[in-house]
Amino acid sequence: MQDKITKLFKAIADPTRRDIFHALVIATSALSITQISNQFEISRQGVTKHIKTLQEAGLVVIDAQGRERFCNANTKPLQEINKWLQFYSQFWDNSLQNLGNYLNSKT
Amino acid sequence: MQDKITKLFKAIADPTRRDIFHALVIATSALSITQISNQFEISRQGVTKHIKTLQEAGLVVIDAQGRERFCNANTKPLQEINKWLQFYSQFWDNSLQNLGNYLNSKT
DNA sequence: TAAATACGCAACTTTTTGGTTGCTTAACTA
DNA sequence: TAGTTAAGCAACCAAAAAGTTGCGTATTTA
Fold it and tell me: Which residues fall in a coiled-coil region (chains A, B) (predicted)?
C-alpha cells in the first residue's frame, strides 16, 4: 500500500474508524468483532474491514481466542503523528506550548 | 462535505498534499499556483485541487494579486489534531511526555 | 493592441474507499 | 452429532478522490 505515516493518517481520517478506535480505547476489556458491530450501524463485514485498516496502521492489536477475535486499541502509533505535528507547532505560537512540545521532543 | 476535524485529517492524509503544505510552510514567501506546480510532478490543475482541499481545511490561505493567487500555509488548524491526540496520549506513557501534554492543554 | 501568462471551470477517466451480500469454515453448545 | 455462532474470503457496487485535458477569461507585457 503506502508508507507508515500515510496509513496512519488515512486510518484516522475516516470518522467511523475514529469512533471504533475510540470505543476500543475506552472499553474496559477487549471487544470481539461482533461486539463492535453491535455498537455500530454498519454490517459486521464493514467492521472487519475497518479493523483491518486500523490493524495495518498499528492502532489495533488482535488477540484470537477460539472462534473470536478480540480487538485491543494501541495508541502508541499516534506518537508518530505527535512527532509530525511537532515541526509545525513552532509556527502556531511560542508561549508555554513550545515548552510542552520541547519536553515532548526530549522523551 | 464533512465535519471540520475530518476535513483536516483527510487533507493531511494525502502524501502529495502533505508535501505541498510542507513546501508552503518552509517557503520564505507565498507561492503562486504555478510556482507550486513547478515543484511537483502533477499538473497545475492537480495542484489547484489539492490547494482547494487544504484551503477548506484551513491549512492554506490565499492572497490574490492580479492574475496570481499566492498561497500561504496556516498551521493553526493543526492544533485541533494536537487536541485530538491529547486524550489518547495519556495511554502511551506517563513520563515527561505527559507534562508536555499537560502544558499544551493549558495554553 | 496582440501575444503571452495565470488561473478557474467543467467534463472526463481511473483508482481507491466504504459498504454490501453470499458462501464457507472453524469452534462452541445442546 | 446437529445446530448455532464467530468470523474470513471473495465478489460486487456506489461514491469519492486523484488526476487529467480542453477551453474560456482575466491580467500582464511587448
Answer: none
**Regarding beta strands B31-32 and A60-65, do their DSSP bridges make them parallel or antiparallel, or are they unpaired?**
unpaired
Checking if the pLDDT of A94 tops 70, the result is no
pLDDT mean across residues, chain A: 91
DSSP string, A56-94: HTTSEEEEEETTEEEEEE--TTHHHHHHHHHHHHHHH--
Residue B89 is placed in which grid cell? 496520549
CATH fold of the domain at B4-73: Arc Repressor Mutant, subunit A (1.10.10)
Contact (Cβ atoms closer than 8 angstroms) between residue A42 and residue A19: no
Q: What is the pLDDT of residues B6-22, one digit of tens each?
A: 999 999 999 999 999 99
Nearest by CB to B88, from A25, A96, A101: name it. A25
Q: Which of B78, B95, B106 sits opposite A92 (nearest CB)?
A: B78
Q: Would you kindly state where each structural domain of chain B is located, as residue ranges?
A: 4-73, 77-107
Q: DSSP class of residue B29? A: S
Say what the pLDDT of residue B1 is. 72
Chain C positions with a protein C-beta closer than 7 Å: 5-11, 17-22, 26-28
